[in-house]
Amino acid sequence: MPRNAVIGVDIGTSSSKGVLVGLDGTLIRSAVREHTPDRPGPGRFEMDASVWWREFGELSRELTAAGDTTVVAVGVSGMGPCVLLTDEHDTPLRPAVLYGVDTRSVAQIRRIEKELGADAIIARGGSALTTQAAGPKIAWIAEEEPGLYARARRLYMPSSWLVRKLAGAYVLDHHSASQCTPLYDTHAGDWYAPWAEQVAPGIDLPPLRWSGEAAGVLTAEAARETGLPAGIPVTTGTVDAWAEALSVGAQHTGDLMLMYGTTMFLIHTVPEPLTSPSLWGTVGALPGTRNLAGGMATSGAVTNWLRDLFTGADHTELTRLAAESGPGANGLLLLPYFSGERTPVMDPHARGVIAGLTLSHTRGDLYRAALEATGFGVRHNIETIEAAGGDIRRVVAVGGGTQGPLWTRIVSDIAGRPQELRTVTIGASYGGALLAAQLVADVSIDDWNPVRETVTPRTESAARYDELYALYRRLYPDTMATVHALAAVQDR
After folding, report:
1. Quick check: is 53 in a domain?
2. pLDDT reading at 100 higher than 90
3. Where is the Carbohydrate kinase FGGY N-terminal domain (predicted)?
4. Which of 17, 70, 202, 491 could form a cystine bridge with 429, CB 3.0-4.6 A?
5. Where does 65-219 have alpha helices with state H?
6. Residues 169 and 232 reside in one and the same domain
């Protein structure tokens, strides 16, 4: 007799991932569809929403092809905040503008800050206005593509678009809304109409629910397209990093989640709202939770870039060579700002820098320097979180970068923090499956996904990394004028 199970699907930057999970948390099956965002110009990252729905259908059919399960609920998540605008019939008007990796909205940020006041935006919305926020992205479309914008009526993100296709519902979760600065009031827990009408005129913003609430049930049409049973509940969903945090139980006060992926994301759960001009203050995925969050624009993206440059090498070989290189990468230092930088630098015009190169440096040294750059960026964010009033008591790691021991070891050594690793580190899709399971059963993440090991920092590396971290912090201001000039050349 087929066992009951749930499906979780996450739409990420470089792939869509799906999992089929038993109600006891057992990972029955997983599947992946890789994709590449479009880059129509410097600092621009977009994706067609048809990719998200097509890949969901492919994943759901692959996961259930064996016929050994009965799917009883669906959970979704996706990269964000993204901006997909549709007309009143839910026809997408253009490809979605992606989250903070897309830096096109600098002029709109300046204008909106001048009109609303930078301090007022932080006070009401929890975050400074940056290229991460959805509000300026909407404003960019309104200003640069006015004919198209005149037909825009609805706002979607990857997770809410899947909900629309699956359940026919127009809805968004509170956390995603809180990243739509300055449209959302984090204190009132609702859209702030005066600013929404000013920044996103004509858009009928979606009703809001919490991530684990049911948005509706699978329609008959969606059942035909996905192979899933009609009538099963579909979660409201959320942004991928917040689903990642749920997948490893990092939602308690004092927790910090580190998400190792194409980008690095950090989510610290706090007991009351905290704000910082260098971080993002948001509501959490669950009712009553608050977060202070950060994100690096690249992490795994840089290691992928190096892999592609080094013909014939793969990550396994490069990781082995990086381990042989040893702490400090034989005197190499890398700034990982290859797509600008998000927190705490908040500089869309930042660029990558590799300092200290000699003719004796190897592929392993360069790959090691990239891994260490993530560690230095994490340490910089942690120090900024704590300076803003955060109290980090536990660090939990998740994501593809936790699969091998080297990267997490390097980050713990540099940041001086132990990291818990759970049994399942697949991430957001598993978190989405958990929320789906909680719609139909009484389950907890500690039962589903217990801790399997803790990576502790090594004291013998501390002095070396302290010295290099000081140089890392100096390297950005010392090179800023040069890389800004180069960014201007690239943007021509």
Report:
1. yes
2. no
3. 6-245
4. 17
5. 106-116, 118-125, 134-144, 146-149, 158-167, 174-178, 193-199
6. yes
